[in-house]
């Protein structure tokens, strides 16, 4: 598995690079957004699929990265790449600060706090309109294609995002299979288990939220640069929901899943919107349900594999270990 | 000559993809107290859950002449099988009285004693519960909770009572007291009992017959006297010697 | 002084409806173990149903009852069809399903009735009272009264009936309840139905104030969660009180804190949530009981 992965990855990266000259600007634009969001979803996967936490607030973190980047490039004349790095750092710090309550709050309660962040963020952006341009948004300085390369802005952004994604994926895979990554899995399964292995769940939570936030900020900065003008309703609660959808649809773990999920939340709404005026949101919701239930059916079938019985009453309360077995089978997939 | 009250044949049970009970057969006659012995992990709790259909099973479970293996847990309870689960399972945020009232709200068919008289009868066997009735169940001690769990299950009026490891976590003197009350209860109410118990001494004291489970199978069976007299085979059954394939044998 | 009283009154009225929706959330949370992100959307749909019935000529209170009945059925149906298949899945999966419910129901409402806001007349007539400088409308008084009535009815059902006992027990410990012969799946369905009916009432009485639009109750999502967290799980009255506190403090925030305006309305409930979770996680009146066991 590792060898073929090691071989496949450079090939895929090469393929993505080559696409720059094959696809139209519009198609590249969509892929750029997919790539930027995939980086964010990877961060979310680390938090949700590996650590087992729930965050409904990553839109706010993306917003810090996105707005941070635009503010730095327009108001402080910081060149693009540095702006993104700084914005990423700022988001990471913000994430660490938010993550601190993680030491005391867990599970759904923590999700609620992040939900609050997601809802409050656009409101704060609008409120501080002097700084952020309020509801009308902040126009961003155009992205400069360096060294006079014969590329359009869109093509250049695409390349930047593609390479960034490749680097992030590589890092993600390293981390996920490292001791730290396994520590996260331990915390997810059982905090007592983690403690007995010398992994502090509280500290792991804060650290992971920081990393996840950094990725969200980075992806947000890239996303924003490809969008142009920064507006508060880009970073709304519904973006947070979409990010969670993307993570869950992709399986919550693994790099491919993140990319698939990101692709879903970019392309599916486009597709359903093309079907007519009123249907899109409903069909989108139904699609999500279809994927979730489909995965569930597969999980259940896998958990049952290799055993005899087919007679089970649907009214039965399943035993505790079965539930955990199913859950961890899901996490492993 | 008459049919046993409970008859289990070729029962297998599964947690997800893991098989935990292998081909278990046993029976409980009307009016009997039967013990289920065996070491930790042998499958005693799983067997109890299997009878109540709280785990996935294959095989046959017959109760009062009817095949109940496909029914839901609640349906099986209403058919007359009470279950005192491992860990007591009291509703910690309900009062003692509410716990008991819940039991009375689902009378199985054929039992007609009036609610108030049943409650009084229970309080006679467990007077402590009467004193504690307005207290939240979660605030009771382990021994009191065990009493509550048993009282509650009995109050529902079952013909067969499954009791899963009632002595777990109780101090020895409490265990003795509990078994004394249990014995009294069984003789005054018309209940048959299948009791899973690691404590061989108490179990054989109250039961007429016993099965020894090991690694998900019945390793030994016999009357209490037979088993008490045959310490060697009892010990080896517990230790799994001469037994069989390894594998999971979760509770 | 008049302004303060004004804000208090309107805060209490809107707070009661937030509390009522919060009670619905609490009921679902105790039974299924998940926060139903779509509860507000359902409540909005119920409000539209009542409004629609009124448009076809039904008198208000018949529309109210009709909507409650339909909402109960909807809630029951949703539990059966959407939630049951994933009942034992990880929390996040169920959350995603409720989030999809939020999107789907809002979309359907928009499709059927349009996205423009509709003005809805008061449910209780147009009488006003004057308390000094403050103006108190019949809508506000009626809403507060309705909230109290709902609380009393629910308390009686849950704590004084056999059905209520079974519902509470099923929510606390499904397995033990099943061992006692309780049909726990039916209890779950009833729980969701009841929650939907509560939400319906909250939505219907909020419509005259918030104007009927597809996002009506979902806009109050954070405030509703704040009410739940403040009141604590396990105490219906506590959630109601939590709702009132959130409603009143948000209104007072509008008036007295320059920072808080219509744009930043959600800052107050957010701070409330954060403070409570850090200082007293079980809420003011809640018990430590978790959701499923």
Describe it for me?
The complex is a heterotrimer of chains A (333), B (251) and C (293). Chain A has 333 residues and is mainly α. Helices cover 74% and strands 0% of the residues of chain A. Chain A contains 14 helices and no strands. In chain A, helix 2 packs across helix 12 and helix 12 runs antiparallel to helix 13. Chain A is globular and about 55 Å long. With 251 residues, chain B is an alpha/beta fold. The two termini of chain B are 34 Å apart. Chain C has 293 residues and is mainly α. Chain C has a domain of 205 residues. Helix content of chain C is 71%, strand content 3%. Chain C is built from eleven helices and two strands; from the N terminus they run ααααββααααααα. Chain C has a two-stranded antiparallel sheet. In chain C, a hairpin with a 2-residue loop joins strand 1 and strand 2. In chain C, helix 1 packs parallel to helix 5 and helix 2 crosses helix 8. Chains A and C meet through helix 5, helix 11, helix 13 and helix 14 of A and helix 4, helix 7, helix 9 and helix 11 of C.
* Helicity of chain B, as a percent range: 25-40%
SSE ordering of chain C: HHHHEEHHHHHHH
- CA-atom Rg of chain C in angstroms: 19 Å
The strand count of chain B comes to 10
Tell me the number of helical segments of chain B per DSSP (H or I, 4 or more residues long).
10
Mean pLDDT of chain C: 89
Proportion in β-strands of chain C: under 5%
Strand content of chain B: 25-35%
What is this entry, summarized?
The complex is a heterotrimer of chains A (about 325), B (about 250) and C (about 290). By secondary structure, chain A is mainly α.
Topology, pairings included?
The complex is a heterotrimer of chains A (333), B (251) and C (293).
Chain A: H1 2-19, H2 25-51, H3 58-75, H4 80-99, H5 107-127, H6 129-132, H7 153-176, H8 179-189, H9 191-196, H10 201-227, H11 237-249, H12 255-273, H13 280-304, H14 320-332
Chain B: E1 6-15, E2 18-28, E3 33-37, H1 44-51, E4 56-63, E5 66-67, H2 73-79, E6 81-84, H3 96-104, H4 115-125, H5 127-132, H6 142-155, E7 160-164, H7 172-188, E8 192-196, H8 200-206, E9 209-214, E10 217-223, H9 224-229, H10 231-239
Parallel strand pairs in B: 3-8, 3-9, 6-7, 7-8
Antiparallel strand pairs in B: 1-2, 1-4, 4-5, 9-10
Chain C: H1 2-32, H2 39-55, H3 60-83, H4 91-113, E1 128-131, E2 134-137, H5 138-160, H6 162-172, H7 174-179, H8 184-210, H9 221-231, H10 236-256, H11 267-279
Antiparallel strand pairs in C: 1-2
Helix pairs in contact in C: 1-5, 1-8, 1-9, 1-10, 2-3, 2-4, 2-8, 3-8, 5-6, 5-8, 6-8, 9-10, 9-11
């Amino acid at each position: 598995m590792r060898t073929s992965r090691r071989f496949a990855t450079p090939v895929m990266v090469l393929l993505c690079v080559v696409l720059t000259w094959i696809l139209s600007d519009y198609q590249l634009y969509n892929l750029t957004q997919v790539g930027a969001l995939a980086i964010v979803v990877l961060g979310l996967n680390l938090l949700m699929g590996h650590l087992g936490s729930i965050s409904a607030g990553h839109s706010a973190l993306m917003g810090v990265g996105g707005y941070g980047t635009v503010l730095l490039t327009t108001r402080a004349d910081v060149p693009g790449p540095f702006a993104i790095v700084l914005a990423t750092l700022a988001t990471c710090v913000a994430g660490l600060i938010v993550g601190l309550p993680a030491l005391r709050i867990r599970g759904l309660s923590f999700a609620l706090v992040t939900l609050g962040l997601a809802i409050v963020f656009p409101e704060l952006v609008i409120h501080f309109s002097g700084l952020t341009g309020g509801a009308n948004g902040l126009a961003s300085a155009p992205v400069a294609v360096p060294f006079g390369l014969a590329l359009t802005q869109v093509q250049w952004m695409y390349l930047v995002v593609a390479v960034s994604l490749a680097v992030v994926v590589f890092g993600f895979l390293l981390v996920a299979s490292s001791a730290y990554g396994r520590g996260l899995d331990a915390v997810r399964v059982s905090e007592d288990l983690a403690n007995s292995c010398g992994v502090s769940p509280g500290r792991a939570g804060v650290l992971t939220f920081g990393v996840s936030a950094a990725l969200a900020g980075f992806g947000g900065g890239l996303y924003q640069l490809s969008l142009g003008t920064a507006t508060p309703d880009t970073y709304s609660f519904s973006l947070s929901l979409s990010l969670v959808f993307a993570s869950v649809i992709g399986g919550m773990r693994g790099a491919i899943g993140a990319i698939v999920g990101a692709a879903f939340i970019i392309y599916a709404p486009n597709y359903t919107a093309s079907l007519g005026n009123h249907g899109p949101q409903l069909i989108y919701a139904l699609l999500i349900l279809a994927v979730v239930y489909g995965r569930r059916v597969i999980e259940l079938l896998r958990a049952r594999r290799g055993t005899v019985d087919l007679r089970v009453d649907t009214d039965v309360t399943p035993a505790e270990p079965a539930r955990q077995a199913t859950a961890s089978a899901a996490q492993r997939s | 000559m008459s049919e046993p009250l409970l008859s289990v044949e070729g029962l297998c049970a599964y947690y997800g993809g893991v098989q935990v009970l292998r081909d278990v057969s046993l029976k409980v006659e009307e009016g009997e107290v039967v013990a289920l012995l065996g070491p930790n992990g042998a499958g005693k709790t799983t067997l109890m859950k299997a009878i109540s259909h709280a785990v996935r099973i294959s095989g046959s479970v017959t109760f009062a002449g009817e095949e109940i293996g496909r029914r839901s847990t609640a349906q099986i309870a209403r058919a007359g099988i009470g279950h005192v689960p491992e860990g007591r399972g009291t509703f910690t945020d309900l009062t003692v009285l509410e716990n008991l009232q819940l039991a009375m709200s689902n009378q199985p068919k054929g039992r007609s004693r009036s609610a108030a008289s049943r409650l009084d009868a229970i309080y006679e066997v467990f007077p402590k519960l009467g004193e504690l009735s307005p207290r939240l169940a979660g605030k009771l001690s382990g021994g009191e909770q065990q009493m509550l769990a048993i009282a509650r299950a009995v109050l529902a009026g079952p013909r067969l009572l499954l009791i899963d490891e009632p002595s777990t976590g109780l101090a020895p003197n409490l265990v003795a007291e509990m078994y004394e009350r249990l014995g009294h209860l069984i003789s005054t109410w018309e209940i048959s009992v299948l009791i899973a118990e690691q404590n061989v001494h108490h179990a054989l004291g109250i039961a007429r017959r016993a099965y020894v489970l090991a690694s998900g199978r019945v390793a030994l069976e016999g009357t209490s006297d037979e088993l008490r007299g045959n310490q060697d085979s009892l010990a080896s059954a517990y230790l799994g010697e001469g037994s069989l394939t390894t594998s999971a044998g979760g509770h | 002084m008049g302004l303060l009283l004004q804000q208090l009154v309107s805060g209490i009225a809107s707070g009661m409806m937030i509390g009522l929706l919060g009670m619905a959330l609490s009921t679902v949370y105790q039974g299924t173990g998940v926060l139903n992100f779509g509860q507000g959307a359902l409540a909005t749909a119920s409000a539209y149903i009542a409004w629609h019935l009124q448009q076809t000529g039904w008198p208000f209170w018949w529309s109210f009852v009709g909507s409650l009945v339909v909402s109960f059925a909807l809630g029951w149906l949703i539990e059966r069809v959407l939630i049951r298949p994933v009942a034992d899945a990880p929390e996040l999966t169920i959350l995603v399903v409720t989030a999809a419910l939020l999107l789907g129901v809002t979309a359907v409402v928009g499709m059927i009735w349009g996205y423009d806001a509709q003005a809805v007349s008061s449910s209780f007539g147009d009488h006003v009272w004057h308390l000094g400088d403050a103006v108190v409308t019949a809508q506000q008084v009626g809403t507060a009264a309705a909230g109290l009535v709902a609380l009393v009815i629910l308390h009686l059902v849950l704590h004084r009936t056999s059905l209520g006992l079974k519902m509470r027990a099923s929510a606390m410990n499904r397995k033990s309840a099943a061992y006692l012969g309780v049909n726990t799946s039916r209890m779950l369905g009833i729980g969701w139905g009841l929650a939907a009916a509560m939400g319906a009432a909250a939505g219907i009485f909020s419509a005259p104030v918030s104007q009927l639009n597809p996002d009506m109750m979902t806009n109050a999502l954070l405030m509703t969660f704040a009410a739940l967290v403040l009141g604590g799980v396990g105490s219906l009255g506590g959630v109601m009180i939590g709702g009132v506190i959130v409603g009143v403090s948000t209104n007072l925030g509008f008036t007295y804190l320059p920072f808080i305006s219509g744009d930043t309305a959600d800052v107050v409930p957010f701070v409330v949530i954060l403070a409570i979770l850090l200082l007293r996680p079980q809420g003011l009146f809640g018990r430590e009981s978790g959701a499923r066991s």
